[in-house]
């Protein structure tokens, strides 16, 4: 399993209704993206980080590992904001660049903290069966749920194949590395379609009619949690508006 | 190349959702019709989605010494066709955002447009053109995967340039800046993805010919006779 999904399945917020956690993390995400970066994004990102490390008890190591790739993108794509191109093939430092780069990177890091709050507390397996209530066709949510269920098996298969290839010096040269990668992709394709066929046969034997609806564990919304979330979001919006009028 | 969470200004992020929506709706309708006609295809589509996710997680050695991930859009478009890929790609991008924090929810529209719409359509158009012009399977798959990947990277650069135009020279200069900085990794990656896709299709032709015929990638015996 993926580290964020493990955190979501084993964390103390697992029994909470997914809609509560979506309201909190996506509400904070909306604040981080839509409000001015100072102080809106800082407050939203700070609140998300505090909730992640505090009540949601997510390990900082898991968060840092998950944040590595998006932070690399933010660092790389912030470089062009620091320079301007006054003439073709000529670059100059933009005096307004550092401020724009800091605003953009700050908003993105804050939004990433909000995304991690959702990812590390809400298992996808609880979200997908509820998506049809948002108007998404049942066929699409069922395909998504099947994809979710199969991908763990396939990721494990790829890991096993990669280890076996590495033990046989399959990554010694570029040529062998590409052959090994093609082998991994081929193995995944074969296993994915073989599993789909076995599922097809198993379902046919059980009188499959075309619906793959699964039972969803009933969870009750917590009014105090929802009220606290709304209070937090309103506080961030008001604090940002007040700070904006003063600056 | 996923645009990270919160990187785009809110108006631009919303606009990319609006631009992607018709393609995703069209893809969803195609998928719903296909599932209604053949309920068993749901399982194959689930397998195709999982395959696309895992394909995009493979680590390709990069010229800079590090590792990069293929987009998987070119091979996915050749195997599963672009309308279905817009939905499967959307699902995969959602999973990558939520399970791996690659990309994001606010930038999902922009990432869907570059990776699940433009990439697959360009790849499939190139594949169809090369095949119609009499090109072999290897050449068609290489061109589809490499150009699909490059198209994805170009669209992402356009999206970033529109969001952050250069203060002196506007959109074009910003496009040169973003395109230039990502070209270092993306052009070698496109070539790598093309080569890898050729090897994968060669392997699948040997081991999973029936599946490729079911997907319409290889001709059936009746088509060969005709």
Describe this structure in words.
The complex is a heterodimer of chains A (247) and B (226). In chain A, a hairpin with a 2-residue loop joins strand 1 and strand 2. Chain A is mostly helical and 247 residues long. Chain A contains nine helices and two strands. Chain A folds into two domains: 148 residues, no CATH class; 71 residues, no CATH class. The longest helix of chain A has 32 residues. Chain B is mainly alpha-helical and 226 residues long. Chain B has one domain: Orthogonal Bundle (Arp2/3 complex 21 kDa subunit ARPC3), CATH 1.10.1760. Helices cover 77% and strands 2% of the residues of chain B. Chain B is built from nine helices and two strands; from the N terminus they run H-H-E-E-H-H-H-H-H-H-H. In chain B, a hairpin with a 5-residue loop joins strand 1 and strand 2. Classes of the chains: A mainly alpha (247), B mainly alpha (226). At the A-B interface, helix 2, helix 4, strand 1, helix 5 and helix 7 of A face helix 1, helix 2, strand 1, helix 4 and helix 7 of B.
How many structural domains of chain B?
1
Low-confidence stretches of chain A: none
The biggest beta sheet of chain A is recorded as: 2 strands, antiparallel
Counting DSSP H or I runs of 4 or more residues, the number of helices of chain A is 9
Average per-residue pLDDT of chain A, rounded, comes to 90
The secondary-structure class of chain A comes to mainly alpha
- Average residue-wise pLDDT of chain B: 88
Q: From N to C, what is the helix and strand string of chain B?
A: HHEEHHHHHHH
Please state roughly what percent of the residues of chain A sit in beta strands, choosing from under 5%, 5-15%, 15-25%, 25-35%, 35-45% or over 45%: under 5%
Q: Helix content range of the residues of chain B, please?
A: over 70%
Order of helices and strands of chain A: HHHHEEHHHHH
CATH top level of chain B is: Mainly Alpha
Q: Indicate the overall shape of chain A.
A: globular
The gross shape of chain B turns out to be globular
Largest interface, with counts of residues having CB < 8 Å to the other chain, equals: A-B, 89 and 74 residues
Rg calculated over all Cα atoms of chain A: 23 Å
Structural class of chain B: mainly alpha
Distance between the termini of chain B: 43 Å
Q: What is the share of helical residues of chain A?
A: over 70%
Q: The biggest beta sheet of chain B, please?
A: 2 strands, antiparallel
Tell me the number of strands of chain A.
2
């Amino acid at each position: 399993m993926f580290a964020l999904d493990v955190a979501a399945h084993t964390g103390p917020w697992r029994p909470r209704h997914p809609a509560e956690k979506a309201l909190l993390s996506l509400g904070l995400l909306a604040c981080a993206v839509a409000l001015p970066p100072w102080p809106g994004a800082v407050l939203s990102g700070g609140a998300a980080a505090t909730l992640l490390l505090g009540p949601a008890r997510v390990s900082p190591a898991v968060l840092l590992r998950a944040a590595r790739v998006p932070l690399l993108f933010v660092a790389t794509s912030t470089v062009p904001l620091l320079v301007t191109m006054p003439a073709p093939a000529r670059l100059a430092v933009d005096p307004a660049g550092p401020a724009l780069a800091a605003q953009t990177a700050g908003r993105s890091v804050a939004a990433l903290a909000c995304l991690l709050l959702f990812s590390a507390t809400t298992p996808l397996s609880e979200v997908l069966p509820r998506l049809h209530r948002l108007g998404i066709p049942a066929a699409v949510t069922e395909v998504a749920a099947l994809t979710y269920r199969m991908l763990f098996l396939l990721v494990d298969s790829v890991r096993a194949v990669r280890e076996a290839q590495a033990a046989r010096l399959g990554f010694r040269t570029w040529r062998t590395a590409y052959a090994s990668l093609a082998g991994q992709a081929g193995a995944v394709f074969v296993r994915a379609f073989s599993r789909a066929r076995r599922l097809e046969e198993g379902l046919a034997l059980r009188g499959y009619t075309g619906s793959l609806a699964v039972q969803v564990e009933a969870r009750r919304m917590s009014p105090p949690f929802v009220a606290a979330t709304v209070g937090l979001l309103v506080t961030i919006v008001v604090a940002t508006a007040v700070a904006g009028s003063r600056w | 190349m996923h645009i990270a969470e919160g990187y785009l200004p809110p108006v631009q992020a919303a606009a990319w959702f609006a631009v992607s929506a018709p393609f995703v709706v069209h893809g969803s309708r195609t998928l719903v019709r296909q599932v209604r006609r053949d309920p068993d295809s749901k399982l194959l589509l689930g397998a195709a989605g999982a395959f696309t996710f895992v394909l995009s997680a493979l680590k390709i050695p990069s010229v800079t010494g590090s590792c990069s991930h293929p987009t998987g859009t070119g091979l996915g478009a050749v195997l599963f066709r672009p309308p279905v890929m817009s939905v499967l790609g959307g699902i995969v991008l959602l999973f990558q955002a939520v399970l791996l924090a690659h990309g994001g929810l606010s930038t999902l529209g922009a990432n869907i447009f570059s990776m699940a719409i433009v990439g697959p359509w360009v790849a499939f158009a190139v594949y169809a053109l090369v095949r119609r012009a009499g090109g072999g399977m290897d050449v068609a798959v290489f061109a589809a995967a490499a150009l699909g990947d490059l198209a994805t990277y170009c669209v992402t650069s356009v999206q970033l340039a529109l969001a952050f135009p250069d203060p002196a020279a506007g959109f074009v200069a910003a496009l040169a800046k973003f395109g230039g900085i990502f070209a270092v990794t993306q052009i070698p990656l496109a070539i790598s993805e093309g080569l890898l896709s050729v090897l994968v299709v060669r392997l699948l032709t040997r081991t999973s010919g029936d599946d490729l015929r079911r997907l319409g990638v290889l001709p059936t015996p009746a088509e060969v006779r005709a």
